[in-house]
Amino acid sequence: MDLKLKDKVVVVTGGTSGIGLETARQLLSEQARVVICGRNEERLRNASKQLEPTCSERASLFGVRCDVTDSDDVQSMHDVVLREFGRVDGLVCNAGEAKEGNFFTNTVQDWRDELDLKFFSYVHPIRTFADALKRHASGSIVCVNSTVSTQPEPHLMTSSAARGGVLNLAKSLAGALGPEIRVNSVTMGPIASGQWERRYEKRKTPGQTYDDWLLQEAGKRDIPLRRFGRPEEAAAAILFLVSPQASYITGARLEVSGGTTRHI
User: Fold this and answer.
1) What whole-number distance in Å separates Cα of residue 173 and Cα of residue 87?
2) Which of 2, 54, 157, 201 has its CA 20 to 30 A from that of 114?
3) Contact between 184 and 175 (Cβ < 8 Å)
4) Other CB atoms closer than 10 Å to residue 108's CB: what's the count?
5) What number of other Cβ atoms are within 10 A of residue 67's Cβ?
6) What domains can you pick out in the chain, each with its CATH number?
7) Considering only 65-74, 82-91, 193-202, 244-253, which range has the smallest mean pLDDT?
8) Which residues pair with 182 in a beta bridge?
9) β-strand pairing of 33-38 with 9-12
């Protein structure tokens, strides 16, 4: 299927690793013009090097250092993107990993930090890029979220609360920004990315490989597909929703979880 993303300008926040990096790679393979951002200059350079082989004569990559929890940083990125490309067609908001802890072990500052990272990292880019996205009356926003937004986990309470807020925000924005901008959510279940590698290093038993540990964790979670998802599977869902092929879809929530959740 041609996703009709050729020459579209798409901004991917958190594009230096995991799902964001893979989303950028797939956008480039569709001959889109892709902007990735991240807080760390070195990680941004490394991501750009990884993505360069995917670039073609039509596809192009542009990396911008930006902390999406800082509205001034986001405004600066916006100005650079419009100066470089003159337009924005899509925005993929992709926040960081979950913070473990329950209601009492997480401090008030932990709650504020999580809301900054998991909620305002969507608010700032959407507010800043909205006018540019409206300009061509076919803008698209995809909020990359988690299944804890609808099925909270006690050990991820701050993240669950913030993610729930983002899901509500995306649904509200679909009404507020239509018809010029479509707004959709992709809720991710367990996807084998960097945060799971770090958890593996902390929890593995002697001699246990990463793949074996992931299979064990999938069993604990009773995932119907009996495995964790791959970043490229998550990115494929994001690409569809951000693309013109999803032109009559807004306010939707697409779950990519291997069947993890049990609610309707």
Assistant:
1) 21
2) 201
3) no
4) 7
5) 18
6) 9-191+230-256 (3.40.50.720), 193-228 (no CATH)
7) 193-202
8) 140
9) parallel
Among the listed residues 127, 95, 74, 69, the one whose alpha carbon sits nearest the alpha carbon of residue 14: 95
Residue in the block written with tokens 């960097």 = 194
Q: Let me know: does 47 contact 63? Beta carbons within 8 Å.
A: yes
For residue 237, the model assigns a pLDDT of 98
Q: Are 235 and 25 in contact (CB under 8 A)?
A: yes
Query: Three-state DSSP class for 133?
Result: helix
For residue range 105-120, what is the model confidence (pLDDT) as tens digits?
A: 989 999 999 999 999 9
Are the C-beta atoms of residues 45 and 37 closer than 8 Å to each other?
Answer: no
Question: Can you tell me which residue has the tokens 């991710």?
Answer: 188
Q: Which amino acid is at 164?
A: G
* Residue-wise DSSP of 180-216: TEEEEEEEE--B-SHHHHHHHHHHPPTT--HHHHHHH
Q: Which long-range contacts (CB under 8 A, 24 or more apart) does 65-69 make?
A: 65/37, 65/38, 65/39, 65/40, 65/41, 66/13, 66/37, 66/38, 66/39, 67/39, 68/13, 68/14, 68/37, 68/93, 68/121, 68/124, 68/125, 69/116, 69/117, 69/120, 69/121, 69/124
Contact between residue 160 and residue 261 where contact means Cβ atoms under 8 Å apart: no
